[in-house]
Specification:
Radius of gyration: 23 Å
Structural class: alpha/beta
Largest sheet: 7 strands, mixed
Bound molecules: nicotinamide-adenine-dinucleotide
Number of strands: 21
Helix content: 40-55%
C-alpha cells in the first residue's frame, strides 16, 4: 500500500492528526494507497511555511524562477510514462489519454509560464495637463491557495500552480482527495528541480476539511478553484467578507450545435460526427468542456443520429491500462452511482436510450471496476432535468432543431455557460452563432483546441474570472499605478 503525504516546507509528512483516507483504483475497485485526511492544523502549518518562503521567492528574479520551471518540465518529460500510468490508475482514464493529453499538458503548463516571464511587460501612459507619466507595476499577492478537481488531476493542478508561482507567489495547493497521486509525485519532482522549501506546499484531504480550512485561512490572499458549481458557490459564500481574490472555474452543460450544411460533403459530415463523439465521450465524458447536449438541425437529424450511434457503439470500454481502450472507468463508486442515477432520471423523464444505459462489465482484473456504457439518449425536452443538469459522465442527449434562432435558444437555455462547439460550413452563420452563444469558449468546427495564451473560463454558473495567459498572470498579481509629474 502506497502512502501519500502532505508536502509542507519542503518535507513530506502525515496529517498532524494521523488520519488518512483510502484512495482507490476505480478500474479495480481496490484501495491502493492512503492519503492524509488533513484539517485546519495542517493548512495552518502549510500557510506558515509558504509565508516564510515568500520574501525570498518573491524577490527571486523571474528568469531564475523560469529556470526552475524548465527543470521541472524536463523531469516531468523524463517521467512521462510513469506519470501517465499513475494518472490512469488513480483516475480510471485510459493510459493512452493520460499519455497524449494529461501529462504533455502538465509539462506545457510549466514551460509555457516559464516563457511568459521573458515576455512580461507593463503599460505606461502619458498625460498632458498636467504633464505626467503613469506606469503600472504588478506584484505577487503573497500566499495563495489552489483547489483542483479529479477529472484532469495533474493537468488542472499545474495549470493553477504554474502562473501562481512564476509571478512570485508562494502556494498552498489542495488536489482532489479522489485523485491525489500525481500531485504527490510532482512534490518530489519540484524538490529535485530545486524549488526552494515552502514555495509550493501540498495539503491533501477532503473539501469540507482541508479545502474549507484553506479558503477560510485569513492569510490566503487568493483562491483559484476548479470544480463543481455547488462547491464554487460555497467558496464564494465563505470568502465573501474576507475580500480574497477568487477565480472560479465550474461546471458545464455544453452544447454541440450541428447545422445541416455539414452534410453537403461527406468529409465535413464525418468531421462533425467525429467531433461530436469526441466532445461527448472523451475521458468518459468527465471533462468540464464536454458537449453533452448534441443539438442537430432537423433535416440531417436521422442521418446524423445513425452515424453517431454507430461510432458510440464502437467505443471500447475496457481496462484503462490497455492500449486499445478508449473508455476507462468512472472515477469512483460515488460518481458511478451519480451517473447511473442520472440515466435512470433520463428514462423516467421519457428519454429513449439509443445505446448504453447500463453499467459495463470488464472481465478479468477490472471485474469490480466502475465502468458505464457510453450512452446516447433522445426524445427529451431541452428544459428537462437531464438536459439542464451536469451529468459529467459518458452520456449525451440528441436534440433536434429547425431554425438557427431555435438552436441558439436551446444552446443558451441552461444555467451554465462554459463552452460550446458549432459545426457549419457557412462562415457567416459561424460568426453569428458564435457571437450569440452564452459561453466563455466557442469552438467552430473543432472541440477542445487550446492555446494557452487565450482566456479560459465560463459565464453564468460556469465561472467567475478567466485563467490562461495574461489573465492568469493578472489574477495572481496586484496592479499598482504610479504617476510622476514632469
Ligand atoms: P468538487 O467541487 O466536488 O471538488 C473540487 C475540489 O474542491 C476538490 O479538491 C474538493 O476536495 C474541493 N472542495 C469540495 N468542497 C469544498 C469546500 N467546501 N471548500 C473548499 N474546497 C472544497 O468537484 P469534482 O467533483 O472534483 O470535479 C468535477 C466538477 O469540476 C464538475 O462539475 C466539472 O464540470 C468541474 N470542472 C470544471 C472545470 C472548468 O475549468 N470549468 C474543469 C474541470 C472540472
Amino acid at each position: 500500500m502506497e502512502t501519500i503525504q502532505n508536502f509542507i516546507g519542503g518535507k513530506h509528512q502525515n496529517a498532524l492528526s494521523g488520519k488518512t483516507l483510502p484512495n482507490e483504483d476505480p478500474s479495480t475497485g481496490t484501495v491502493y494507497s492512503t492519503v492524509p485526511d488533513s484539517d485546519s492544523e495542517d493548512v495552518a502549518l502549510a500557510v506558515e511555511a509558504a509565508e516564510l518562503a515568500f520574501p525570498q521567492w518573491s524577490q527571486t528574479p523571474g528568469i531564475e524562477r523560469a529556470k526552475i520551471f524548465r527543470r521541472i518540465a524536463d523531469i516531468l518529460t523524463a517521467k512521462h510514462e510513469e506519470l501517465a500510468r499513475a494518472e490512469s490508475i488513480d483516475n480510471g482514464k485510459p493510459v493512452s489519454l493520460a499519455r497524449s493529453v494529461d501529462i504533455p499538458r502538465s509539462i506545457k503548463n510549466f514551460s509555457f509560464f516559464a516563457d511568459t516571464i521573458s515576455q512580461a511587460a507593463s503599460e505606461a501612459y502619458y498625460s498632458d495637463e498636467p504633464r505626467a507619466m503613469h506606469w503600472t507595476t504588478r506584484s505577487p499577492l503573497g500566499v495563495v491557495g489552489t483547489i483542483s478537481p479529479w477529472n484532469l488531476p495533474l493537468y488542472v493542478f499545474t495549470w493553477k500552480i504554474a502562473p501562481a508561482l512564476i509571478t512570485g507567489n508562494t502556494v498552498v495547493a489542495k488536489p482532489s482527495e479522489v485523485t491525489p497521486m500525481t500531485a504527490h509525485l510532482l512534490s518530489f519532482i519540484v524538490k529535485e528541480a530545486g524549488l526552494p522549501p515552502g514555495v509550493l506546499n501540498l495539503v491533501h484531504g477532503t473539501g469540507l476539511s482541508a479545502g474549507a480550512a484553506l479558503t477560510a485561512h485569513p492569510k490566503i490572499k487568493a483562491i483559484s478553484f476548479t470544480g463543481s458549481t455547488k462547491t464554487g458557490a460555497a467558496i464564494a459564500a465563505s470568502t465573501a467578507t474576507q475580500f480574497k481574490k477568487l477565480s472560479l472555474e465550474m461546471g458545464g452543460k455544453n452544447p454541440t450545435v450541428v447545422f445541416a450544411s455539414v452534410a453537403s460533403a461527406s468529409a465535413t459530415f464525418e468531421k462533425a460526427v467525429t467531433g461530436a463523439l469526441r466532445a461527448a465521450f472523451n475521458n468518459q465524458g468527465e471533462i468540464c468542456l464536454c458537449g453533452s447536449r448534441i443539438i442537430v438541425e432537423k433535416s440531417i437529424y436521422p442521418k446524423f443520429r445513425e452515424a453517431l450511434l454507430e461510432k458510440v457503439k464502437a467505443l471500447k470500454v475496457g481496462d484503462p491500462l490497455l492500449e486499445d481502450t478508449n473508455q476507462g472507468a468512472l472515477v469512483s463508486r460515488a460518481h458511478f452511482e451519480k451517473v447511473s442515477a442520472a440515466i435512470d432520471l433520463a428514462r423516467s423523464e421519457g428519454g429513449k436510450i439509443l445505446c448504453g444505459g447500463q453499467p459495463a462489465t470488464v472481465p478479468g482484473r477490472c471485474a469490480k471496476g466502475y465502468f458505464y456504457q457510453p450512452t446516447l439518449i433522445e426524445g427529451l425536452d431541452p428544459s428537462c432535468r437531464t438536459n439542464q443538469e451536469e451529468i459529467f459522465g459518458p452520456a449525451a442527449t440528441l436534440i433536434p432543431f429547425e431554425t438557427e434562432e431555435e438552436a441558439i435558444k436551446i444552446a443558451n437555455g441552461t444555467a451554465y455557460g462554459l463552452s460550446s462547439s458549432v459545426w457549419t460550413t457557412d462562415i457567416s452563420q459561424a460568426h453569428r452563432v458564435a457571437t450569440a452563444l452564452e459561453a466563455g469558449l466557442v469552438w467552430i468546427n473543432c472541440w477542445m483546441v487550446r492555446d494557452l495564451r487565450t482566456p479560459f473560463g465560463g459565464v453564468k454558473q460556469s465561472g467567475v474570472g478567466r485563467e490562461g495567459g495574461v489573465e492568469a498572470l493578472h489574477f495572481f498579481t496586484e496592479a499598482k499605478s504610479i504617476c510622476i509629474s514632469y
